[in-house]
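Crash report, auto-generated. Payload:
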Amino acid sequence: MSLDTDSPERARPEPIQAVPVRHPGRWVAVAVIGVLVAMFVHLLVTNEAFNWSFMVDNMFRPPIMAGVRGSIALLVTSMLIGIVLGILLAIMRLSGNPILRGVAWAYTWFFRAVPRLVLAILFGNLGMLWSRIEFGLPFDRQIGALFGVQDFEARLFGFSATDLLTGFVAGMLALGLSEAAYMAEIVRAGIQSVDEGQTEAAQALGMTQGQILRRIVLPQAMRVIVPPTGNETIAMLKDTSLVAFVPVSTELFFQIRAVGSRTFQVFPMLVAATIWYLLLSSVLLVGQYYLERHFARGSGRAGQARARLRGMAVGGGGAAGGAGGV
Amino acid sequence: MTQASVPAQAGVPAQAGAGPMVRAEQVHKSFGSIEVLKGIDLEVRAGEVCCLLGPSGSGKSTFLRCINHLEKINAGRIWVDGDLIGYRERGGKLHEMREKEVAAQRQAIGMVFQRFNLFPHKTALENVTEAPLLVRREKRAEVRDRAVALLERVGLGDKMSNYPSQLSGGQQQRVAIARALAMQPKLMLFDEPTSALDPELVGEVLDVMKDLARDGMTMIVVTHEIGFAREVGDSLVFIDGGVVVEHGNPREVIANPQHDRTKAFLAKVL
Ligand SMILES: Nc1ncnc2c1ncn2[C@@H]1O[C@H](COP(=O)(O)OP(=O)(O)OP(=O)(O)O)[C@@H](O)[C@H]1O
Ligand SMILES: [Mg+2]
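Recovered output after restart:
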């Protein structure tokens, strides 16, 4: 009866009221930072070169909004190409077929070695190689010549190369194909992070390799794949500005520079570009947080609750509880 | 690679249902230059509980994995319920089966692993329903009812929506057993199902296995639980160095081992 530990009879020790350790260094740091921030704000407000009113007036004009939409379209399509092709390349890299492995390796080697800016401009000029791009039987003319038929052509359909490789398509291919090389490495690391026992258990249940990859291995690999893919997406958002040099005109940075140079207000428009990219990346960060939370399912006893709390605090950075780094 | 290097076996037309559930003949398996299985012969009748014992590294797990073709054997034959595992025999020649055919054979053979190997991104219920839905494309409602019944049978009716990380080792292993049973196998393989468990959790898993044995399931169990072998086992096979050293009634073998190696091993584990 009197063994109750919460018994009020038992005297509770007095709460500790010690003098906390002082941190004079912190106050010095606060003072220094305060002065620097004040100087920066002063610069922003008083320096004429910023021309804030011009910037705000021009930042949301129709051509720039079209540029924003173009950049987002470029981001989405190139990342889609990158992810799909990257998964394919990763599977090829891990397959037992030495030819597939070699092709995937060579692809990755090429597209990681060439800078994206160079790739983008190169793709923009591919129209110089062929005037038309056609689909049909390969080497049809040569085969025709072999059988004595002059000008034998077996072509199904075709486009004018300059039509197909408009700036947008060239930029999308350059960015997407290059992204695939990086995604392949990320996906490969993710697949390899999944325990062998998972594949064995699935095999023992009668699943085929394709089913195992789709339903068992890739969903688990996602925990390792999603965080770096989020970073890749944000990097890609920034790299869409490279295609301004293809040139792609329906793109944010191209439009910003156009307005800047036409109005001789280069600097305010560069600030506008900075703000636009900040805004768009912040949206991506939020998306990344929710994706990571989704794929952290079942990891760790309190993993989900913890990830939720931590994610809120840091705005998405590394929210997946216990997800191994790559 | 495409043909097992064995002479065609004369006249063993084992028929489904009639013959033994598992029949292994001169099974050889090498990893590189190391021969792990050196000619294992074994027969397990339908409904029999066969316990495999042996020192570490003797090839018990390897043999179990050969039975559902997780490992390719180098020589010999294995039949499960009359079907040759992994190969098709045509005109005295062995042809390697396609991936789909191997997968189909594995559906009838349940396997339970030492480290559970539950799918961590799926709840207990989803772990159990996954294979019937994906592999057999059964109706969702039917699969669900069967899975719920199985989880209740292994005593986890209240843990169905838990993820594996939210379950104890013993509970995870019981889900793993339910997962294997959901494919309605003819044969269950257990590879040291209780070795990774805390001592107080061993009993709950063994109880589920005893229940299965009483129900007439054919089981091959690699285990160090001598008590289980004695109580539930119909036969005991002692493997050492990749060969069957002793094979008999568990109670007799344990009480009165014939071979020195069996004696030495039992002296250590008893
Ligand atoms: N994939 C592999 N590659 C190479 N050697 C292997 C492989 N798998 C098993 N072995 C070897 O085969 C031998 C038998 O292994 P196995 O796992 O079958 O033993 P076991 O009887 O199950 O032992 P334990 O009781 O420790 O589980 C061991 O020497 C092991 O090192
Ligand atoms: Mg083993």
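Post-recovery validation: DSSP finds 13 helices and two strands in chain A.
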